[in-house]
Amino acid sequence: MTAIGIIGSEGRMGRAIAALIEESRAALAGGVDNGGDVGALATAADVLVDFSAPAALGDSLSAARETGTPILIGTTGLRDEHHALIDAAAADIAVLQAANTALGVNLLAHLVRDAAAKLGDDWDIEIVEMHHRHKVDAPSGTALLLGKAAAEGRGTTLGEVREEGRAGLDCARTVGAIGFASLRGGSVAGDHQVVFATEGERIELGHRAESREIFARGAIKAALWLVGKQPGRYSMGDVLGL
Ligand SMILES: NC(=O)C1=CN([C@@H]2O[C@H](COP(=O)(O)OP(=O)(O)OC[C@H]3O[C@@H](n4cnc5c(N)ncnc54)[C@H](OP(=O)(O)O)[C@@H]3O)[C@@H](O)[C@H]2O)C=CC1
Ligand SMILES: O=C(O)C1=N[C@H](C(=O)O)C[C@H](O)C1
Q1: Catalytic residue among 83, 110, 131, 221
Q2: 134 is catalytic
Q3: Which Gene Ontology BP terms does the record give (predicted)?
């Protein structure tokens, strides 16, 4: 059986993945949290999954590279320097980075890209997300993934049109912007809504995660898929055939 090692094992996602591994055709190689020996975990595991914090990424990738172990990065809040680390590691090992491992969200990204491509520039795009009260990064990784898909559909990059944090008296939207709004509260596992709005009508495409189990199921599927893959950077689209 494929042995999966979990980085961030005592966190909300780590625990959800461990619980599902018990019921799946995989085995648990072990887990680490802040201060744990990720090198030993990488040696014991056939594949690593990292759902921890951006600060962990460098050590996770180094350990995976050292042992030639494929790795799934589920952590969000990643910046350009983290993506550069992932690209460098992908020269030596198989790395899959996914802000959301749920099937529904990855399909939604395709729908959003298509809708943005078909609707004209006079349709404003706003992305609203809500998560539990403990979430530290905003906008969510998924909101950014959906924003990137919308920007691609429009033939631009998210960096050029991203708009967030409106407050005050000078907040009329910029033409062509993709806006983000983040709500935090309670135990919400993850809600995302992409609103396309023009004069007189609106289209809303969205996804609601009812529990973390959908992310955990997708993570295990992706981890098993990664084993034996050539070095390179992969996405959930590769796993799901989207
Ligand atoms: N891709 C996806 O589908 C999903 C992604 N996520 C993302 O996964 C990440 C974790 O989420 P969640 O489980 O809710 O967060 P939690 O805060 O519940 O758990 C994070 C865990 O990571 C550990 N950790 C923190 N820093 C390090 C480190 N440097 N090395 C090793 N372990 C570390 C923490 O340990 P300690 O307490 O000791 O610091 C903790 O156990 C977030 O970025 C979240 O956005 C969440 C859901 C789905
Ligand atoms: O922190 C979470 O909980 C989640 N994080 C991911 C994100 O930032 O998009 C995925 C999911 O929405 C839950």
Answers
A1: 131
A2: no
A3: diaminopimelate biosynthetic process; lysine biosynthetic process via diaminopimelate
Q: How far is the CA of 153 from the centre of ligand 1 (A)?
A: 31
Is residue 131 annotated as a catalytic residue, yes or no? yes
> Which residue's alpha carbon is nearest to atom 7 within ligand 1?
75
Beta bridge partners of 73: 50, 97
Read off the pTM.
0.97
Domains of the chain, first to last: 2-97+212-240 (3.40.50.720), 103-209 (3.30.360.10)
Residue 22 has pLDDT above 90, yes or no: no
Length of the chain in terms of residues written: 242
Atom of ligand 2 nearest to the CA of 144: 9
From residue 131, alpha-carbon distances to 10, 81, 135, 178, 188 in Å are 19, 25, 7, 20, 5
pLDDT higher than threshold 90 for residue 148: yes
Whether 25 shows a pLDDT value over 90: the answer reads no
Chain-centre distance for alpha carbon 63: 21
The protein residue with its alpha carbon nearest to ligand 2, atom 1, reads 135
Residue 153: pLDDT above 90?
A: yes
Average pLDDT, the chain: 97
Q: What is the DSSP string of 142-192?
A: HHHHHHHHHHHHHTS-HHHHEEE---SS--PPPTT-EEEEEEE-TT--EEE
Give the DSSP H/E element, type plus range, for residue 84: helix 80-89
The rounded Å distance from CA 78 to ligand 2 centre is: 12
| Position in ligand 1 atom list of the atom nearest CA 33 | 32
